[in-house]
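Folding follows sequence. Below is one example:
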Amino acid sequence: MEITETKNESLKRAYKIIVPTADIESRMASRLGEIARTARMPGFRPGKVPVHLLRKTHGNAVMGEVLEQTVSESSQSAISENDLRPVAQPKIEIDKFEDGEDLEYTMELEIFPEITLADFSSLKLERLKVSSNEEKIDATIQQIAASQKESIPLEVKRNIEEGDVVVIDFLGRVNGEEFEGGKAEGYSLEIGSGSFIPGFEEQITGHGLDEAFEINVTFPEDYKEEFAGKDAVFEVVVKEIRETIPAEINDEMAKKMGVESVDELRKNIRESQAQELNSISRMRLKRDLLDILDKEHKFELPEGIYEEQFDAIWAEFERRREDNPDQIDEDDKGKSDEELKAQYRIIAERMVRLGLLLSEIGRVNEVVVSPEELNRAVMQEAQRHKGKEKEIFAYYKDNSQALQALQSPLLEDKVVDFILELADISEREVTLEELMEYPEQSEINTGDANQQKSKKRKSVKKISSKKNKSD
């Protein structure tokens, strides 16, 4: 085999590879010999079909198989002999091949850049910590009680107030015409729940039992196309008014949540909040670490991977802009495509740099995802798809790219954990609001090339009011 380097520019390499016809013929004869041992053909006993006849009947198929194997093995040999570390699969182009002649092809690839790793023990980081807040736990229990509320008939006659449950008959019209779904009898509606068209529940408030009246509303612009933005009139009759009372906070309420007592419910809420807050704290710590790694490691990026990453990000942005424009950040809507592309190129550059850097740190320090860890990840993924576990297992078994996508974040977290073990980390106690803040300068928190730009807006209310269900 003859290997000639034809390009050595930056991280790009190209080679002209020639495989002698004798090598190909040898492989061809060997493969046909294997087939002949079990081949069947009329007029011949099994395993006794002459090779020259098999060449006539199976020659093209076997030649394709042989060429594929030859290119695979010879290209790997060229990579090994030249001590190359490709960042992606090489591009192969057959230049010349005729039966009885040498095989000539070109291999183009990009190699890993030289990366000088920082001294991780010199990195200074801060872990944010939020202490358990009993007031928030009390508030969560109160919200659980409110979610278990019951409604009872009014003891004293009065008009409808927010929080009441009313039983109504209604009939809606648009342009004087009734429409599908606009009519119901004996419908129970909690006032203030926001489950009806904006303005509907507010206009019921203040009316009394057995009262008949009209409500005028306008359908939202994002409603069904045939109604979006249109005015509607509803005829409403109040059949019953019920007031709501929260459940009493006691062990019986706790049992409805799957635990034996209020104390156990409180304990579970405390543990759940601590777990979630620790997760957010780690996410903040990881983001800060990646910010530092990004600043301290500057190296040349493989152009092909960078462009591929940018194209993927831009294609996803265009898809969201077309299909879900409401998901586009407000500060992006007024920008030109040129401005947006420049912005996303910075993000693509960061993602590729961090991806390569974390990969190199893992390689140098022999950080790997074990088969057991990967199997657990597959099982967890299968458990998310109840009733389709076999299909999920088969999917990952037969799809190496999908398995790699599942493995990548596991490896990333293990590399991050490795660095954090070496870094100098101090702790600082902060409020929940401070923990949830996300500075604008850090848009991307990971080197995972599948993640896109996101404004990390979190809700403090979500954490403080999250319900814990042990069932």
